[in-house]
Amino acid sequence: MRCDPASAMDLSPGAIPSRHDRRGPTEMSGGVPWSIAIADRGDVGDLLAMIRGLAQYEKLEHLVRTDGAALAEALFGAHPAAEAMIAREGDENGPAAGFALFFHTFSTFLGRRGLWLEDLFVYPQFRGRGLGKRLMAEVAAVARARGCGRFEWAVLDWNAPAIAFYQGMGATLLPEWRLARVTGDALAQFGTETPGAGS
After folding, report:
1. Which residue in 9, 36, 31, 26 sits closest to 138, CA to CA?
2. Range of the domain at 18
3. Which of these is catalytic: 55, 80, 166, 167?
4. Residue 76 maps to which CATH number?
5. Which of 32, 35, 28 is nearest to 5 (CA)?
6. What predicted TM-score, i.e. pTM, was given to this entire model?
7. Is 57 a known active-site residue?
8. Parallel, antiparallel or unpaired: strands 26-27 and 33-38
9. CA angle, corner 9, sides to 36 and 88, nearest 5?
10. How does pLDDT run across 181-190, given as a tens digit for each residue?
11. Do 129 and 2 contact (CB within 8 A), yes or no?
């Protein structure tokens, strides 16, 4: 049974426990204990390995450009861009089992910030034991504690197990929306053409 972190601790920014101040292990299905907490710099190597594992699963290895230094700066630099929760088997010194990486967004319609889940990953040997649900529940609890109006993420359309998993937790898919992206050379050139050029 999961412990609701919203009632167990302060989840405001900077108040979530790091690996040096995290809750003791709790039990998941099958009696295997694990600990979950906000990651710190000491977790960067494990986070990077899981990011690569996720990319491999999604057949997107060719898109991974980050390294340990870039990830550490993004998560723990002077202006952090995101946060991550890491799950470990047993206590805080156990092997990494999974992670969730998230950051804040803002809705003009709601007038409130939201929480965007960028990545969710559990190593294959830990799947089927409720750890993915636990990580999702922990991040959702952060969203509630911080007064967010939304908790959102994207899922690949071919990933039927993930879609079923999210719907089973109560998420609603938004088929009328499409994700727009500009990156690489396209980003470098985006909006730089002279008005009227090519017309």
Report:
1. 36
2. 5-173
3. 166
4. 3.40.630.30
5. 35
6. 0.81
7. no
8. antiparallel
9. 5
10. 999 999 999 9
11. no
